């Protein structure tokens, strides 16, 4: 079907463009967009599509710019860990799609706006999945080419285990924090990598993860704005990560849960012979506090304030 | 020395928040993973964390003592959790008295 429309009765021919004005961006106030500005799911999906298109990049081209012989043992270890971690994003996106679908059906009659938020989230999961495929393949191909320990099919399948379902707000906040953790880690990696091609890959993937964080925050905010999901659940997940010995400490914790159900990538990072851990805990803490502000409107500045606020919201 | 009624208070509050009876909850070898599995109100460790928080908030309201529990692995026996709660209560109570 042609996207050009011409006025055949007049001359000269006027061609109306089907492209949208303005730079593509995430709809940060999705609840208002749906309820006050009258945006439809077709409108929302169009915005998702054009942002996705604007951010595409080629794994093949990125890999071509890496000088394999210049990679240090630390570079190779960082690539290997990133590749394994990224294996867990496909089950995350698959689960989000399935859970969103179930939530749409659950809310359709009770609160159609919440059903639309869930649908927008489920629809976006296809872009998330595709973008994460770039991350997984770029790092795993590079790890393979640079002679790192191969990822066995058993490990591949183990890392593909799908997370158990949970409350949708908690799920979205957990995913936002996972993206924050990944983005900060990749940002830290850039500081120690010398090869410009490899540095560019980490920079690109970190930028993608921040974009994903922004999407998760927007969906979570829309759920809180709907009045159907309490802010306390966003704070609960943040506290789970930020508390002493919390998830944010990942594989550095003395004791890790032995789960048979799924793999949390942050539990699986291996330092190897290097001392480098891309932790930057304070930066992650500040970004998590910033996400909570956007999602709930409640301002906190530290993990202690996150805990205090969560305890107050929980009540007795 | 912890106030004698605190232990039954914690047992009762936590059982309420878990949606279980004290007899169901405080069996000799039950772990936190078992509690999540048997509770009709819990899906995962976030619910467990919230049940502890509600219990701690109750202690703060009724006894004026703020208890903070550390992150506990899911294989921790519930009897150990109860002891940790009581130890923390005692520690906080002593600190508040100084």
From TrEMBL, chain A:
Keywords: Fatty acid biosynthesis, Fatty acid metabolism, Iron, Lipid biosynthesis, Lipid metabolism, Metal-binding, Oxidoreductase. SUPFAM superfamilies: Ferritin-like (SSF47240). Pfam families: FA_desaturase_2. GO terms for molecular function: metal ion binding; stearoyl-[ACP] desaturase activity. Coiled coil: none annotated. Its cofactor is Fe(2+). One of its GO terms (biological process) is fatty acid biosynthetic process. InterPro entries: Fatty_acid_desaturase-2, Ferritin-like_SF, RNR-like. Belongs to the fatty acid desaturase type 2 family. This is Ferritin-like domain-containing protein. It comes from Streptomyces bingchenggensis (strain BCW-1). The lineage of its organism: Bacteria, Bacillati, Actinomycetota, Actinomycetes, Kitasatosporales.
From TrEMBL, chain B:
This is Uncharacterized protein.
């Amino acid at each position: 079907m042609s996207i050009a429309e011409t006025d055949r009765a007049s001359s000269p021919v006027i061609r109306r463009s089907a492209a949208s004005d303005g730079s593509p961006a995430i709809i940060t106030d999705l609840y208002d967009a749906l309820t006050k500005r009258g945006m439809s799911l077709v409108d929302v999906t169009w915005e998702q599509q054009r942002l996705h298109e604007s951010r595409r990049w080629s794994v093949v081209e990125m890999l071509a710019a890496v000088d394999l012989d210049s990679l240090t043992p630390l570079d190779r270890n960082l690539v290997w860990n990133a590749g394994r971690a990224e294996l867990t994003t496909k089950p995350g996106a698959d689960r989000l799609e399935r859970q969103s679908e179930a939530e749409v059906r659950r809310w359709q009659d009770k609160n159609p706006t919440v059903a639309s938020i869930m649908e927008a989230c489920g629809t976006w999961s296809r872009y998330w999945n595709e973008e994460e495929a770039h991350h997984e393949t770029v790092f795993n191909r590079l790890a393979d080419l640079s002679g790192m320990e191969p990822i066995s099919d058993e490990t591949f399948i183990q890392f593909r285990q799908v997370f158990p379902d949970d409350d949708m707000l908690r799920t979205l906040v957990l995913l936002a924090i996972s993206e924050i953790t990944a983005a900060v880690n990749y940002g830290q990696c850039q500081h120690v990598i010398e090869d410009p091609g490899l540095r560019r890959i980490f920079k690109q993937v970190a930028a993608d993860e921040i974009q994903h964080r922004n999407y998760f925050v927007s969906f979570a905010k829309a759920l809180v704005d709907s009045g159907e999901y309490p802010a306390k659940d966003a704070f609960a997940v943040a506290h789970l990560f930020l508390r002493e010995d919390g998830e944010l400490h990942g594989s550095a914790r003395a004791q890790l849960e032995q789960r048979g159900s799924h793999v949390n990538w942050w539990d699986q990072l291996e330092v190897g012979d290097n001392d480098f851990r891309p932790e930057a805990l304070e930066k992650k803490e500040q970004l998590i506090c910033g996400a909570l502000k956007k999602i709930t409107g409640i301002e906190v500045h530290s993990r202690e304030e996150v805990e205090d606020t969560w305890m107050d919201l929980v009540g007795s | 020395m912890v106030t004698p009624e605190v232990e039954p208070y914690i047992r009762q509050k936590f059982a309420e928040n878990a949606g279980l009876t004290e007899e169901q909850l405080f069996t000799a070898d039950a772990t936190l993973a078992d509690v999540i599995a048997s509770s009709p109100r819990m899906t995962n460790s976030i619910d467990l964390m919230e049940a502890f928080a509600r219990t701690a908030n109750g202690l703060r309201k009724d006894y004026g003592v703020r208890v903070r529990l550390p992150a506990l692995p899911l294989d921790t026996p519930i009897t150990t959790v109860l002891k940790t709660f009581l130890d923390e209560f005692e520690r906080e109570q002593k600190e508040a008295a100084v």
